[in-house]
Design brief:
Elements: H1 8-11, H2 22-26, H3 39-46, H4 56-60, H5 67-75, H6 79-89, H7 93-99, H8 121-134, E1 150-154, H9 158-169, E2 173-178, H10 198-210, E3 214-217, H11 227-233, E4 236-239, E5 245-246, E6 259-261, H12 262-273, E7 302-306, H13 310-321, E8 326-330, H14 342-350, E9 354-356, E10 359-366, E11 372-385, E12 391-395, E13 401-404, E14 407-410, E15 414-415, H15 420-423, E16 452-454, H16 457-460, H17 465-482
Parallel strand pairs: 1-2, 1-4, 2-3, 4-16, 6-14, 7-8, 7-14, 8-9
Antiparallel strand pairs: 5-15, 10-11, 11-12, 11-13
Helix pairs in contact: 3-5, 3-8, 5-6, 5-8, 6-8, 7-8, 9-17, 12-13
The structure holds flavin-adenine dinucleotide (FAD) and iron/sulfur cluster (SF4).
Flavin-adenine dinucleotide binds next to α9, β2, α12, α13 and α16.
Amino acid sequence: MSRKQVFQFLEMPREMPRRIPVELRTAGDWGELYGRFGAQEASHQSGRCLDCGNPYCSWKCPVHNAIPQWLQLVQENRIREAAELCHSTNPLPEVCGRVCPQDRLCEGSCTLNDGFGAVTIGAVEKYIVDTAFEQGWRPDLSAVEPTGHRVAVVGAGPAGIACADRLARVGIQAVVYDRYEQIGGLLQFGIPTFKLDKAVIARRREVLEGMGIQFRLGVEVGRDVTLEQLLEEYDAVFLGTGAYRYTDGGLPGQDAEGVLPALPFLVQNGRIVTGADPATAQSRPIAGWEDHIKLPDLAGRRVLVLGGGDTGMDCVRSAIRLGAARVTCAYRRDEASMPGSAREVANAREEGVRFLFNRQPLAIETDELNRVTGVRVVETKLGEPDARGRRVAVPIEGSESVIEADVVIIAFGFSPTVPEWMTKLGIEGTSNGRILAGGGERLPYQTSHPRVFAGGDAVRGADLVVTAVAEGRDAAASIAELLGAQPPVRTPQYAE
Ligand code: FAD
Ligand code: SF4
């Protein structure tokens, strides 16, 4: 592949698309933070790629995107071909371009990170797909022969969507069930609009329906329809049910007025921001998980968010847009150990969020009416690595203090569960609630039931959109193999 100007990165600095000014964000603007490149900017930024010969970016990307190749197509203004190539590895490229923590993945391993600034891979990916869709490009399935096979996909999140997409591409009819009234899973009901505009999900739904994928929304499997019924009606089932068991931390006083769990807060607020009815009868929380909370007015209040992951960052930045007087994030390890994207932390800081690192919460402080007044914390230092290799936060004796707050949002994370409607059909899980899939004699992503497959957060535990996409995509390849259909390619050929 020829390059016009190999050393373009020396003259052309790394630039991200323009962002909504911070004054508008702090005044309550919920629009997507980053705009989109124009054709010239996209071409210039793509031209910074060195084509270094060993594309670490592609290897580090969980779906192994053909990044140098589509950067070259952008320089040649061959956007439809670039979109085709993006979709060959990734069923949701416009979403990943927006929400992937690129600093930890593709851009984090770009050779130019060595002092020049990585190529803006995510922003170019978003540019390619948004532009191609606007130009009328759609996946072309005209040569696909129907196989007559039908597969039920449980969960319309990234894992389920990716699986359905790949099944459709080899002529297998995918029917996707979700308990919510819209597709997207956490993309729709979790991630706020300032990271991902919900029109992106609506457009993707049109594209998927155009590919022949059917959706049965507002249907909860295990309640409205059983897994046995799905296995009778379909040749195979894919479970992409996500991770919704809330980690509450067991803090004394956490039932006080003004203490909120993170996801219900984000979901409810997201419904309000997008103009949906917050109490819509079709949206059903998972049994025992209450997502119809009454949101307190945060305007002028002191909000404290406990937890430093993606969910915590979405909570602090939402609280800023809701007019909170002061927003603080308390995290028990140091900044370098934060699990989320460094870019999101920088955006939060710019919006005025205060970070208190090395603070471990001990108890919620309340007044005589059981209303929250603050959180008692102890300072920590980092100790030895735990079983997962993360250094343990060790409390420092005598360092307790209280962080005052009117509202406390708990964002300690989520884990999956294997519900009874799965276990009674013999589907095995791990002790920490993950569905067991693959391994031994099984096909990748095949569960202990030969016709049931699983992937995404339900198998990995709470993780990332792009890893859920990779697993849904590759589970479809296993399903196609089981059904004797031509399997979609698992590992892209160029990456072999
Ligand atoms: P989900 O997206 O959770 O989808 C599962 C779907 O299954 C849901 O729609 C659910 O309704 C449905 N379902 C469950 N049980 C049933 C049932 N019995 N019947 C019918 N339907 C059912 N990742 C990133 O990469 N970048 C980010 O910026 C980012 N931000 C995040 C912010 C928040 C607040 C949260 C909570 C997560 C974030 N993540 C982010 C993680 C990412 O959203 C998830 O890893 C990803 O969505 C997992 O995809 P999934 O398809 O496995 O599950
Ligand atoms: Fe980077 Fe994510 Fe796109 Fe892969 S899918 S190239 S990791 S933004």
